[in-house]
Amino acid sequence: MLTRIESTLRRWRRRISRSEWLARMLKLQINERAPDAPALVLIQVDGLARPQLDRALADGKMPFLKKLIEREHYHLDHMYSGVPATTPAVQAEIFYGVKAAVPAFGFMSTDSQEMLRMYEAKAATQVEQKLKDTGHEPLLKHGSCYVSLFSGGAEFDDAHYCAATYGWGNSLKQAGPLALLVLLLANIWSLIRTGGLVVLELILSLVDFVRGIHRGQDFMRELMFIPTRIAITILLRELSTVGVKIDIARGLPVIYVNFLGYDEQSHRRGPSSAFAHWTLKGIDDAIARIWRAAHRSSRRHYDVWIYSDHGQEDSIPYETLHGKPLADAICDALNSLPKSPSGYRAAGREGLQLQRVRLFGGQWVQKLFPIRTHEQQEEGESPMALSAMGPLALLYNIHLNGTDPARIAQLIVEQTKVPMILYQEKNPAEGTKPRVLGWWRDGPFELPKDGHKVLGSDHPFTDEAAEDLVNLVRHPDSGDFVISGWCAGSKSITFAIESGSHGGAAPNETHAFALMPGDIHLPDHLSGNTNGHWRPKDIRDAALAFLKAQPAQKLKSPPAISVLDKRSPPPSTAQAASEEPSARVETAPTSSAHTRSSKKDGNHCPRRKLRVMTYNVHICEGVDGKLSPERIARVIARYSPDVVALQEVDVRRQRTGGVDQAQQIARLLSMDCHFQPAMHLEDERYGDAILSPWPLRLIRKDILPGPSPRSRQHGRAEPRGALWVEVDFHGTRVQVFNTHLGLSKGERMRQVEALLGADWIDNPECHRPRILVGDFNALPGSTEIRRLTSVLDDAQLKLPGHKPLGTFFSRLPKARIDYVFIDPELAVHGVHVPRSELTRLASDHLPLIVDLKVPAPDADR
Predict the structure, then answer these.
(1) 463: helix, strand or coil
(2) Which one of 3.60.10.10, 3.30.390.50, 1.10.3720.10, 3.30.565.10 gives the CATH number of domain 579-593+607-708+715-850?
(3) pLDDT by residue (tens digit) across 53-89?
């Protein structure tokens, strides 16, 4: 009854959804698909390093993200952004699978000698066309994107606030007055809220303006930063959030949104500044609204993945430190050469600030924030050129005239005081690639051989960063020399006018994060990455695998979803804290990763904790009315059980689409399965199942004693069965029983006595340890439960200090009718009843998870 009520309320809520109506009013294409078809929302928090995220979580700046970790079973992982640690490089790797597509955010095309900056439409379009020509599948095909440099394969109308498509897409631009009025009225609360935030941000901006002037900042730059700060941190974020919610209502398969506020403030005031961390509150709230909209979708089953593209370093501008621009300092340093540079072209000194506001579009915005290039040159030979947008500077058109490049590198390091410079050797041995050499305070070095020396042994990604620096120097558009504003033992220097920078190989700027649902783990076979962190291409590969895992059709099951059954990366600090044996909370912690290979080949494993899950899946129909074995499989996968006992499973029944639910779930999880049909209706069956990745041996399956003859006469008879299997767990043979008892007290008592009798638990062949699980349809104080606990222990009562948790109804789980009963010699190490949004939706019961310590076999004792 409660399930039907909630399902009805959800249907009515969807019918009056403002996002649904707005999509139709704006004449946007609606994707009508199976409601359990996989879909993905990718949320990028631009510029937020993992250490800064950890600080924000600890300080309470991002409460919703903290809730995802603590309540929704998300795991927080490390991510290496790659070098260059810039948004275009990361987006190219995620959208198209191409690493280091650009050498920096700003660079010079060696073919055209044209300075390119990735916030320009021409530059972004030119680079993306090259990415499309590689033939790689674009990740955002048939989807949409918001606040991006590249479209990623999204159609022109669905690419909003992108470098190549300034402003909102054509659908809104071409909307009539009525549609725009409805849009405003439907989001009146958002408008009021946004107005309040704008006023608050204006006050903070004015305070920041006064502080900046007091510290000697440029007056006009500080003044111009006020409107851009409000536009990027508030308006762009709110407009994008509304757009994403509309696209979720439309049922688009993949949606990407990038939140720029933190990165914008970090460039201006530094990544550790209070003003930068202030913006994280608004980003956290926007993520919460998108996440809730995704989980209410009636058209697709949305996952929400959250990650950052890179971090930032607290940096000192080179011009502030040395009193002149880097280009001037290089010219002075090279004056002793036979032919010193007589002029130069330079780009990037103004940094990225005051330019992102151009994403809003409109001619007045483009005129108010023009793009400038600083040039000092004479006619004739191509002059020296420098592109410096952050801690990396690319130096072009250095005419050696016989001078050893090592000598030029030495001159630049010693006279300009830059930390490090890299270049390729000019005359490599025949048939070999040119070596990548460099110069720093201690003299010459070679990469990647000397990576640990120049990057530091405490760098979180030393080997990867050294290898990426080699590839960066070899990029055809990286120039003759690559100047780095950071190396081991030095403070970070930026060659733009900013307080926070990224783009190089420093620890914080390459240290991003990935916040992923519990069953989405790093697929080792895709990247060979076994050291516990993601990189952008891994996000892409996991996303493509997830999107291509189509729901089951009739009796044909899809292959196992790779992202469901891969080894978890090492847990983060937040996860590790929740994995202590003493953790007994309603939100189940991530279990330690299972080594599947050792389970199958029988190799010795020291792990003796057996995780048992019992779960009434309600024929895989959720409280939202969706029928989805895939969703049940995802619930199970998130908690990595060793034994799963399912009740109310349909096999080939027309009411559930003719799908063999037991086998479908088992295949998705790569588990063995045994099914016991309690009911047979011709070829249709209904009953219970036991699944496990460990070897299973079926001992017995049968029907239990039924209801009284009077109940059968009144048509209330429903057969109940039991299933007994033996699980080989590290050599210990564990007896597992699964059942679903009847609705009447007398029926349950007859079934309990049968289970405790000689055919089942008291069978001479039933060796200890024994575990009885299932849905017993009886409260703890009932006679039938007391009869069971006279022989076996109630696991929830056996754990010291644990308050027993209810499992039914999933939205308000007060009734405790699902149980795990165990032999007295089994120790209980944890009890979990996860109350995440997924578990509350997937069935009318919550799963009950118990961690048990299983004695070793006699040979090991």
Answers:
(1) helix
(2) 3.60.10.10
(3) 999 999 999 999 999 999 999 999 999 999 999 999 9
